[in-house]
Design goal:
The chain is α/β, with parallel strands linked by helices. The protein is built from 9 helices and 10 strands. It has a 6-stranded parallel β-sheet, covered by helices on one side. The protein starts with a strand and ends in a 15-residue tail after the last strand.
Amino acid sequence: MVMIGDQQLPPKRKNSSRLLFDFDTLVDLHLGVVKALQEDYPPGELSTVNYSFLHQPFEKLKQFRVFGYGKNVVQECFKGKPKESFTSIYETYLNQKRVYNRAPRTLIPRLIRVYGNSGFIKSTVLTHNVFEYQTASEILHGCNNCTIIQNANEKTIDVNQFARLHIGDIHDLDRYKPFDCTHIAVLNYGSNLQLIDHDVILLREYVIQWGDTNQFEIIDSYNDVTCPDYGRIQ
């Protein structure tokens, strides 16, 4: 930290024209998994599957993804013990190429292309397996000023080299070593948010941990999702 009188200031950003994106800002992997679950669990009578939720129209699931504050769309597809262990189910499905094929694109690829065409902003996308790398390469094919990193390890990345970090799941901040003076843009998925005193905010524990020396922002994942009644804040 830099001291000016009695005031502590965070260090300046090293490079204001470089932006960092986690892969799951490009596509919605959670909804990709839900689509795969719909195929694997057609309407039936298993006591561990929440069929009424799983087989809603896709538009309704997309609404829940954004406006289901504090909830996870994959978790809500199950009941009982599978609902408690949904994280392991989700991670297992990420080993299937069909999930990446079915995952809807967010607004972020379009944003990266706009940045690339500006001529002075450079984007770096982190991928962690062959499916992520292949998908990112397909989506961003021909994009200017964009680098895709294979087999990324967040612990080895100096985030301070970037002006902004974009993430789809706020929990993924746990992957990174400490950094400061960075803009953290988090997609507006309900699982990243909570409702406190009639305000929708990012999960408080992450804001407390990272917010002293960084600035958070909530950004749109989609532009075609209307707010349902349960998402309206009185």
